[in-house]
Model the fold of this input.
Amino acid sequence: MTAALALPDVEATAALGARLAPLLAGGGLVALRGELGAGKTSLVRAVLQAMGHAGAVRSPTYALAEPYLIGGLEVWHLDLYRIADPQELELLGLRDWLRPGVLVLVEWPERAAGWLPPADLEVLLEHDGEGRRVHLSGPLASRLEPVAARA
Ligand SMILES: Nc1ncnc2c1ncn2[C@@H]1O[C@H](COP(=O)(O)OP(=O)(O)OP(=O)(O)O)[C@@H](O)[C@H]1O
Ligand SMILES: [Mg+2]
Done:
């Protein structure tokens, strides 16, 4: 199943992050696809803040990986844009983080093609005018609660 949603501004991205956070509280692998500037880091930031992370969420473009501990949940935010060879992932220790109960959010997962297991949540972001459009698929996408109707 794939759900497509309009994200007209970063506030809409923040609201989606709040909807996704409960689904990811038990860990899992999230693949975030989309071109440069599509809003992948913004969505990760929204999810981590909705989980209760109070500090900054920086893009791990140079660090490759940024660890967090949020209410007892181990979280790894990865940006594999600079990975040229999936073997570099072995050196990075990525395999050790792909454990049950750990949340791993990966930007540019295509750099690790054939190396990452299937994601629990696939996120595809694309530009749509000034805003963005997001497509969600994978096992966790079907558990996304519809937005509550306004009373
Ligand atoms: N829903 C949205 N509507 C409008 N602008 C957005 C939206 N989401 C994010 N942006 C803006 O897009 C810009 C790029 O966002 P972001 O850094 O999250 O992209 P990215 O996909 O992580 O890029 P990269 O591939 O370089 O890591 C930021 O200025 C951000 O505020
Ligand atoms: Mg990014």
The chain has one domain: 3-143. The mean pLDDT is 93.
